[in-house]
Design a protein that fits this description.
single chain, about 250 residues, alpha/beta, TIM Barrel, 8-stranded mixed β-sheet, 9 helices, about 35% helix, globular
Length: about 250
């Protein structure tokens, strides 16, 4: 596994547990508000942490940590993720996986393996705005401007279909989960909550995260957080579609 970072103790990343958070390198999205460019942009990559060092650390934390959160970047771009998860689980730790949902095939295997205890999937926006928010390589919404084809690029379609399939996989599993969205001006508006609500209708838990200005991938884009009142309005807009809404 390409381990790019390690937070040795967290009280917030794994609900209900004292945990460590491990960051994997690389992502197939370049979300404008992403605050981890060193995990996404090759020119900003830091040296990797040897996998054996990570497992030695875990073994030294028996009795102090209850779980491990695997985040990124995007963990599911790494084919050895199931084995990595199984190793952590075999050491006696609970495992939480953060994902953008673009690799449902690997996600399905992980769910069937039964070694993941919690999944948090990022919902970037309504499906028709994914290109604008996730900033991935293959455009969806503006493909007609760049091509004479009447169909969007196959790679784009696969990413979007993957997101939709992953939502269903997670909701139909017996694993604890949440869907969550980081909201930032001007990328999101209150109408987007309706579109997201339709994507995840019936979900147990949906979390709104406000944008915080630290580092971001797209420094040229002027982003801003929402006011508390606006976040409550966003939450109220999606409430009819989900069982629980949390502003985090």
């Amino acid at each position: 596994m390409q381990i790019a970072g390690l937070a040795k103790t967290t009280l917030v990343d794994f609900p209900g547990l004292v945990a460590a958070t491990v960051f994997t390198r690389g992502c197939n999205f370049k979300c404008h508000y992403c605050h981890n460019p060193e995990l996404v942009l090759p020119e900003k990559f830091n040296p990797l942490i040897p996998e054996e060092d990570f497992f030695e650390f875990l073994e030294s934390r028996y009795g102090k940590l209850g779980g491990v959160c695997i985040t990124g970047g995007e963990p599911t771009i790494h084919n050895d993720l199931p084995q990595f998860i199984s190793h952590i689980k075999a050491l006696g730790f609970q495992v939480k996986l953060d994902t953008n949902g673009t690799n449902p095939e690997l996600l399905e295997k992980i769910i069937k393996d039964g070694d993941v205890d919690y999944i948090a999937m990022d919902i970037k926006s309504p499906i028709d705005k994914y290109r604008d928010v996730a900033n991935f390589q293959f455009p969806i919404s503006n493909f007609k401007k760049n091509s004479k084809s009447k169909k969007p690029p196959a790679a784009s379609c696969k990413l979007i279909a993957g997101v939709q399939k992953s939502v269903k996989l997670i909701m139909n599993s017996d694993i604890s989960y949440e869907f969550r969205t980081t909201l930032a001006k001007p990328l999101h508006n209150i109408d987007d909550m309706i579109g997201i609500g339709k994507m995840i209708k019936g979900t147990n838990k949906y979390v709104i995260q406000n944008y915080l200005k630290t580092k971001q991938i797209s420094e040229e884009m002027k982003l801003a957080p929402f006011l508390d009142k606006e976040l409550r309005e966003m939450a109220n807009a999606i409430k009819p579609f989900v069982k629980s809404v949390e502003i985090r």
